Amino acid sequence: MDSIDADGPRRVTAAEVAALAGVSVGTVSKALSGRGAVRHDTRSRILDAAAELGYRAPHAEPIRTGYGSTGALGVIIEDHFGRLTVPVLQGAIEVLDELDLALLLVDGRGDAIREQHFADALVRRAVDGILVVGAGVYPREPIRGDLPLPVVYALSASTREGDQSVTTDDASGARIAARHLVATGRRRLTFISGPQRDAASMVRLASTRAVLAEHGLDLVHDPLFGHWTEAWGRQAALQLLHSNVEFDAVVCGSDQIARGVLEALRENDVAVPSRVAVTGFDNWDVMVEASRPPLTTVDMSLTDVGRLAARTLVRAVAGDRTPGIQLVDCQLVPRESTAVG
């Protein structure tokens, strides 16, 4: 916080922020203005230092873009190492770069207090709007509602009515996977996913069952819920094999689970796809390309989510604001795990 002396509050200097963050004054200037290339971890450290000291930067000359007062936008992410976060962020950056808009990126780490701290810091930096990028497809609590600028949520939709959110259409993804399996002649489907409490698990299950009902079918085994891991995929597949239920397809809630399922089937001499077809969800290249056989999966169109969220924020800054959740369609990526013939 600003210190107090006989002459009133003493303004914290950029040099003090630089000293606390362990960087140069020039790097502080670039990080807080958004007008220079600064590494993400360095920028986060500088913002932390600025907020801790209560630094108030002098207002820079506005960047004239026609969208807002400064032409700088803030982005709060939940997890900068997140497998889902990165492609969303890439899409958003593409749009902002095309529009020559400056970007201030901070890592909220999924902590509400830290997010609010950074939101307040971004307001003090005079950004025109804030994009909040979630780490998964689930509803999230919003940042405090009295921020004096537009806020758009990407991937993790805000639970507050009246907010603007953009996320992937999980239901459409699950439907296209189930329809693909039925179209390739599969009639005895099973379902394995992550925790039952996760919205993604329940949405994908409901959509799978809805498609089966259209064809007079249902799952031949109770859905299995566990963890979003390969280990759980192997364990669940073994449960199916030991249940003596005949099945010809496994719908998996994630690529990690699907890879575990494939391993268990292979180890038990169950041929894929001739005897059992397997689908995943995510199109995570590390998983699908290393799977044996390569995995048919659902691409969540995460880069498109980032692009649409960025455009939505730019429009909101310009005064064109429509509350609600915008959904981006998923796409099926067929590979050998469901091939016919």
From TrEMBL:
GO MF terms, alphabetically ordered: DNA binding
One Pfam family linked to the record: Peripla_BP_3
Cited InterPro entries: HTH_LacI, LacI/GalR-like_sensor, Lambda_DNA-bd_dom_sf, Peripla_BP_I
Keyword Kinase tagged: no
Domain HTH lacI-type: 12-65
Protein's UniProt name: LacI family DNA-binding transcriptional regulator
Keyword terms of this UniProt record: DNA-binding, Transcription, Transcription regulation
Gene3D superfamilies recorded: 3.40.50.2300, lambda repressor-like DNA-binding domains (1.10.260.40)
Coiled-coil regions, chain positions: none
Organism encoding this protein: Microbacterium rhizosphaerae
Presence of the UniProt keyword ATP-binding in the record: no
